[in-house]
Input
Amino acid sequence: MAGLCLGTVQLGQKYGINNQIGRQPTHEEAFGIIQAAIDSGIEYIDTASVYGEAEELLGKFGIGNYPVKVITKLYIREQADINNIKKLVHSSLQKLKMDCVDGYLLHNAADMYNDVIMQQMTEVKESGKVNHIGVSIYEPEDAIYAAKLKEIDYIQIPYNVFDQRLDHTEFFHLTKENGKTVFARSAFLQGLLLSDDKNILLPEAADSIKLFRAIIEKYHISPQQAAFYFSYTHSNIDYVVFGVDTKEQLLNNLAMVNDLNGDFMKCRQELASSFKDMPKKIITPSLWKECL
Ligand SMILES: NC(=O)c1ccc[n+]([C@@H]2O[C@H](COP(=O)([O-])OP(=O)(O)OC[C@H]3O[C@@H](n4cnc5c(N)ncnc54)[C@H](OP(=O)(O)O)[C@@H]3O)[C@@H](O)[C@H]2O)c1
Output
């Protein structure tokens, strides 16, 4: 089974197609979520310089004083940033109130093709400010390139019941062979997989959501369980990065881990074969606006 990583985009800004609370959590609520995740023994926290106030929030919480590994990301906005990567790392560390983070990922996969950027990322690692460097990807071609790149330690991928694209490539074989650590985000597809007939958030996905619900009903499991377990039981996913808007969702998700049993694997097989090849407009959140 995979390990767990709490995502923080939901804590730093309003986020998600199915946002049940309809707003960003208050600082107090966010601190409650982070504390409960740490108390449960969660291994990683994933954040980024562009997740609203997430880095500051983690710094205010005092995340550096807890036994949890922090991953943040480098977002390069303009040409000038390329020569200022050390400053950008420093700025993230300052907000987080930490001297060093476990992981530092390129937020844009395109940056991994730039030798100057990769050289600086390597220097940042050598300086001891970050322990591992990596990349967050959206497209399978980028994932495969990252899996072959010797400098890369961590690769964050999108993966869920509707997005199994990487299962049909050499990606997982390569990451295993090359010793990369794989973090899979979007288990709930930002909440889309948890929408129901009465609350279809993306009209294009209505039939697929209906089929998803029909399959899991046969196995008596909830959409939350099916979506979470689908990533959690993948043999080559090392960590599932999941986001929550409330402490209740966090506790539900942590409780699900304990309820997992072998029966799910049959359901997993049926989900894997039913949603092998989904249209890009359903699996790509950045394209959703055009559908709504
Ligand atoms: N490019 C990147 O690097 C990148 C991009 C996106 C995300 N991320 C990372 O990945 C993390 C996860 O984000 P994601 O987009 O992948 O989201 P996700 O984990 O697929 O979905 C999170 C959403 O699912 C819903 N949810 C979670 N647990 C639930 C429960 N027990 N019951 C009901 N609803 C529940 C919540 O939405 P509602 O309450 O709104 O339904 C929550 O906001 C982020 O926090 C971030 O750290 C990285």
